[in-house]
Each structure stands twice: as C-alpha cells, then as structure tokens.
C-alpha cells in the first residue's frame, strides 16, 4: 500500500512548511517573527498560515521523530529524572510534569491541575507504558512521588538529593524561554500539545554542544537537519 503524502492538498512547498514549523517550535519566536523571517527569504506566508501549519504538521513531525528515536534509544530505562514546574493558564496554576533520561532526552511531558499522588501516579503510568520501567528514578522531595512509586511497587528505585535532579531542572529552561515568547497558554489541551511537540523537536536538535568537538558537532547538526528535511519526503 502506497503511503500518501500529508502535503498532497497544499500548494505551498513541503520544504517551506517544514522550515516554518521548525523555526516556530525550535526557537523562541512568535508567529509574526516567523512570517518576517520567511519574508526575508522571499517566501510570502502570513502568520495565520504558519499557525495552521504548526497545528497540522507539528504533532505529525514530533510523532515521526519520537518513533525513530525510540527505536534507537537502548538505555533510556537506566536512570530517569522526574520534576514538575508550574505553568499559568488563564491565571490559574497548572503543573507540567517531565521525565528526562540520564542523557537529557525528554521522555514524557504531562499537564495536570494538581501535583498530588493521583497526578503523579497518572504521569508515571503514562511514561512507563511508553518507555518501560527505569532502574533508578531521581526525584525531588515532593511526597507525591514517594506515594505514587510505593503504589506501583517501585519505591526502592527512588533517589533524592539536593543537586541530584539538576538534569530535570535544566530541561525546563528551553520550554520557559518558549513560554515567554508565546505569552503563556490559554488551555490545558494547547499546553499539552505544544509541550509534547516541543520536547521531541528539542531532543532531535539537541547535540550537547559542550560535550563534543567542533567537527563532531557540525556533523551531528547537519545530520539532524537533513533528517528533519526528510520527514515525510518520500
């Protein structure tokens, strides 16, 4: 069976759509910033077109990236870092939970209204259903983690420490920069959608620049960009 191209009904080039979606998700830019950058490249597209492309293709690109990376990730169940950060939605406080592996890959993002045992348990079950059970789970001293891990029989795998969870704390920084550019969120559903897509795209382009030589970084960056341009190309 021949797989149909998701761009088949669009007059705009797939390369332009991929570029616009990448600029909007990867960098802390507004829709109008992306429109201006495309205009500088001789591409006439309105910010509403960019919005539509992101809503239509962002989750598709993220799902394809996630599928490819999961098949290559062999050690994501060794050590997880869990953390939650508050996010304002229409003036109300919500919580964005995040699971990160020992290499900084964001495994799962989940939005809830509370950060009690029920919310932590739901988040853990969702992450483990997709990625399996880790050998070690590093958390802060929030009691909800201990209660949820005890219920699923993984209390002996929990570790806490003053600086042990810096890996998860640092994973929030790119999202925080993006949140400010978007002037926050208005619905839980839009926050959940963007957090999941943003995590996958960040994983794809994150090359740990400080840990590799300049030649290797350039090769990895070029490979990541070439893979992005090849999404749904065939």
Key terms:
2 domains; 234 residues; Nucleotidyltransferase, domain 5; 53% helix; alpha/beta; 5-stranded mixed sheet
Write down the CATH topology of the largest domain.
Nucleotidyltransferase, domain 5
Mean pLDDT: 88
Number of strands: 5
Order of helix and strand elements from N to C terminus: HHHEEEHEHEHHH
Which radius of gyration do the C-alpha atoms yield?
Answer: 19 Å
Largest sheet: 5 strands, mixed
Q: Using the coordinates above, name the CATH class of the largest domain.
A: Alpha Beta
Q: State the secondary-structure class.
A: alpha/beta
- Approximately how much helix is present in the residues? 40-55%
How is the largest sheet built, in terms of strand order? 3-2-1-4-5
- Portion of residues in beta strands equals 5-15%
Put simply, the count of helices is: 8
Could you name the CATH homologous superfamily of the largest domain? Ribonuclease H-like superfamily/Ribonuclease H
Distance, first to last CA: 14 Å
Work out the count of structural domains.
2
Shape descriptor reads globular
Ranges where pLDDT stays below 50 over 5 or more residues in a row are none
CATH architecture of the largest domain: 2-Layer Sandwich
């Amino acid at each position: 069976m021949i797989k149909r191209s998701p761009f088949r009904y669009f007059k705009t080039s797939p390369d332009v759509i991929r570029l616009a979606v990448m600029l909007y998700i990867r960098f802390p830019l507004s829709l109008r910033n992306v429109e201006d950058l495309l205009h500088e490249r001789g591409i006439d597209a309105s910010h509403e077109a960019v919005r539509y492309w992101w809503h239509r293709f962002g989750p598709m690109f993220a799902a394809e990236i996630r599928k490819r990376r999961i098949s290559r990730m062999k050690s994501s169940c060794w050590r997880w870092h869990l953390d939650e950060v508050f996010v304002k939605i229409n003036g109300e406080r919500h919580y964005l939970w995040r699971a990160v592996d020992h290499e900084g890959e964001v495994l799962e993002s989940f939005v809830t209204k509370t950060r009690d045992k029920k919310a932590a348990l739901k988040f853990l079950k969702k992450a483990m259903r997709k990625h399996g059970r880790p050998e070690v789970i590093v958390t802060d001293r929030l009691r909800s983690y201990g209660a949820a891990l005890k219920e699923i029989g993984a209390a002996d795998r929990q570790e806490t420490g003053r600086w042990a969870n810096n890996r998860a704390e640092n994973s929030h920084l790119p999202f925080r920069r993006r949140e400010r550019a978007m002037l926050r969120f208005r619905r839980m559903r839009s926050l959940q959608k963007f957090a999941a897509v943003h995590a996958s795209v960040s994983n794809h382009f994150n090359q740990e620049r400080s840990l590799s030589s300049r030649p290797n970084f350039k090769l990895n960056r070029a490979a990541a960009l070439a893979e992005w341009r090849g999404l749904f190309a065939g």
